[in-house]
Design a protein that fits this description.
Elements (H helix, E strand, L loop, with lengths): L2 H8 L9 E4 L3 H12 L4 E5 L3 E3 L4 H5 L9 E3 H5 L5 E5 L2 E5 L4 E4 L4 E3 L2 E4 L3 E3 L17 H20 L3 H7 L1 E5 L3 H17 L13 E5 L11 H14 L1 E4 L4 E5 L2 E4 L2 E4 L2 E4 L3 E3 L2 H5 L9 E2 L12 E3 L4 E2 L12 H21 L13 E6 L2 E6 L2 E4 L1 H14 L3 H17 L11
Parallel strand pairs: 1-2, 1-9, 2-5, 9-20, 11-12, 11-17, 12-13, 19-21
Antiparallel strand pairs: 3-4, 6-7, 7-8, 10-18, 14-15, 15-16, 22-23, 23-24
Helix pairs in contact: 2-10, 5-6
């Protein structure tokens, strides 16, 4: 089949020169597509999944607090009101910058007038990609379901184990990385053990399970103020989490980890130690930072590439003071909305895309029941107030009224009953 025939199959008649193509249906890509759709601008959104995933709540799926359907929404459902937006469910594999086409895994090509790369991030194992087999990260629904199955299966195996040492290892969970995801995961695993599973077993006591949080830096939550890091450290310790700071992992295998020169036998190891951008930079044949982010100008356009933009975790974007913007959902969403509005004006009359300005809406991380940290400029909150603010922010960011109501209802039920409703062991 010729390239021309392939292009016609991928693109409706009349769209070849007019469409803005967005690759990635995460926070940034979705916000960009919605902003363009509201203005009737011909747009194509490409994503390998048919759903938008709310990654900040994936740890709740991994610890049986929520089901996958609670944190994911079909992309077509989100965008169906925008008739100018077309959705393609396929994996992008490259970009032909000369012909201005996005290459798809199925062999088809999608032409673009302007291209927005919002392909997100993946976990960074810092040169030890083989560790992923023993310590899954938490970026996809499959990751979350695997972790949930592994955590619950470890208790089932421990229930049948006669040897005390083997039982202790099965009931030990090691979390590598003390950022927001690691801290949230540590607190959630403890609450799963101490409350939801406490009365379910006869031969073991889930409350005796060990949770060990390993962080290479001298403190937790390095993106937050020191006093919030200190609060998180004290709170986790009071919950029974063993926190090891300034500690690096040397080896990771089926038996557990060697960290700080000590062998820790564990039934589960969870990796939250850092992320790197997707492989999108390789599509453009350019250079990037060590974390894989693509260098962009103030207007989010890719350096040395015409009519190509990058946003969210894909982009190496700095603020007015020259500081790199964090890999947060609010950054990606604001960039997507800004770029969608600007590209609409550009497509209509050639108006130049203005520089992006990030407006910080606050940063937050939950630690456990009635415990969280919330930072907004000089204002800092901890404890129940921060916990309530965390819940409000995350429910607000969920796409769709139905999801917000369901998640809020389940959280209230879990708070009152200490139960976890999605305790299913599923093997893919």
């Amino acid at each position: 089949m010729s390239a021309g025939a392939t292009n016609e199959e991928a693109t409706p008649s009349g769209d070849r020169e007019g469409r803005i193509v967005v690759v990635g249906g995460g926070f940034g890509g979705l916000a960009c597509a919605r902003a363009l759709g509201k203005r009737g601008t011909p747009t194509t959104l490409i994503d390998q999944h048919n759903y938008h995933l709310f990654i900040p709540l994936l740890y709740q799926v991994a610890t049986a607090g929520l089901s996958p359907a609670d944190v994911a929404q079909p992309i077509r459902r989100i965008l169906r009101r925008y008739e100018s937006v077309r959705v393609i469910n396929a994996r992008a594999t490259g970009v032909d910058t000369e012909r201005r086409e996005v290459l798809l895994e199925n062999g088809r090509h999608v032409p673009y007038r302007a291209l927005v790369l919002a392909t997100g991030a993946q976990y960074n194992y810092f040169g030890h990609d083989d560790w992923a087999a023993y310590a899954p990260g938490l970026r996809t629904i499959n990751n979350a379901r695997t972790l949930r199955a592994n955590l619950l299966a470890a208790f089932e195996q421990a229930e049948m184990e006669d040897a005390a040492a083997a039982r202790e290892a099965l009931l030990t969970t090691v979390i590598v990385g003390g950022g927001p995801t690691g801290v949230e995961m540590a607190g959630a695993v403890v609450e799963l053990c101490r409350f939801a599973l406490a009365r379910d077993f006869r031969s073991i006591d889930p409350r005796s399970a060990q949770v060990i949080l390993i962080e290479a830096a001298p403190r937790l939550l390095t993106a937050f103020q020191q006093r919030l890091s200190d609060y998180a450290y004290r709170r986790l310790q009071s919950m029974g989490v063993t926190v090891r700071l300034s500690c690096t992992v040397q080896t990771l295998d089926r038996q557990g980890v060697i960290a700080g020169g000590e062998r820790i036998r564990a039934g589960n190891v969870i990796w939250t130690a850092g992320v790197k951008a997707s492989d999108a930079v390789s599509w453009l044949g350019g250079t990037s930072r060590p974390d894989g982010r693509i260098e962009v100008r103030a207007d989010l356009s890719v350096v040395e590439r015409e009519n190509i933009y990058a946003i969210g975790d894909t982009a190496d974007c700095v603020d007015a003071e020259g500081h790199a913007l964090p890999a947060l959902a609010q950054v990606a969403s604001q960039q997507g909305t800004h770029l969608g509005k600007a590209l609409d004006a550009w497509a209509r009359d050639g108006t130049a895309v203005p520089a992006f300005r990030f407006r910080n809406r606050g940063n937050t991380a939950i630690i456990g029941r009635n415990a969280a940290v919330f930072e907004f400029g000089r204002w800092c909150f901890t404890g129940r107030m921060a916990w309530l603010l965390w819940g409000i922010v995350h429910i607000y960011l969920l796409v769709g009224f139905e999801q917000r109501v369901l998640v809020a209802t389940q959280w209230l039920w879990h708070y009152l009953t200490y139960e976890r409703g999605a305790r299913l062991i599923e093997r893919g």
